[in-house]
Amino acid sequence: EVQVVESGGGLVQAGGSLRLSCAASGFTSDDYAIVWFRQAPGKDIEGVSCIVSSDGSTYYADSVKGRFTISSDNAKNAVYLQMNSLKPEDTAVYYCALDLTQAAGWDDEGGMDYWGKGTLVTVSS
């Protein structure tokens, strides 16, 4: 059974940092993508960042470039999202998604195969 589990959310002041972790297990492919999405209250879900296992390619939404860094530990099937210089508008539930087919755009939520349950990030002003 494939499982995707996020951790690391919490409350932080504006300008602070948090690191989110995503652990994916139960699959055997060595060519996949892990994507972080977020959904703020009353807003559509948004692709935040992506990392591709095969070559380490990374992608970022314009809104987080220069502040967020995605990295991976392939041996552990773990992906991390380091979030610095956090802003109140970063407040959202952050979801980790596993893309085994990589057939759609990296930020196309409809192309994801498995999702975690999400972790809440709250940035206070």
Helix content: under 10%
What's the helix-strand series? EEEEEEEEEEE
Rg on CA atoms, Å: 14 Å
| Poorly predicted ranges | none
Mean pLDDT over the residues:
95
What is the strand content? Answer: over 45%
Summarize the biggest pleated sheet: 7 strands, mixed
Secondary-structure class: mainly beta
Would you give an account of this structure?
- By secondary structure, the protein is an all-beta fold.
- It is built from no helices and eleven strands.
- Strands 2, 4, 5, 6, 9, 10 and 11 form a seven-stranded mixed sheet that branches.
- The chain is globular.
- The chain starts with a strand and ends with a strand.
Task: Write a concise synopsis of the structure shown.
The chain has strands at 3-7, 10-13, 18-25, 33-39, 46-52, 58-60, 68-73, 78-83, 92-99, 114-115, 119-124.
Describe this protein with a few key phrases.
125 residues; mainly beta; 4-stranded antiparallel β-sheet; globular
SSE layout and pairing:
Blueprint: E1 3-7, E2 10-13, E3 18-25, E4 33-39, E5 46-52, E6 58-60, E7 68-73, E8 78-83, E9 92-99, E10 114-115, E11 119-124
Parallel strand pairs: 2-11
Antiparallel strand pairs: 1-3, 3-8, 4-5, 4-9, 5-6, 7-8, 9-10, 9-11
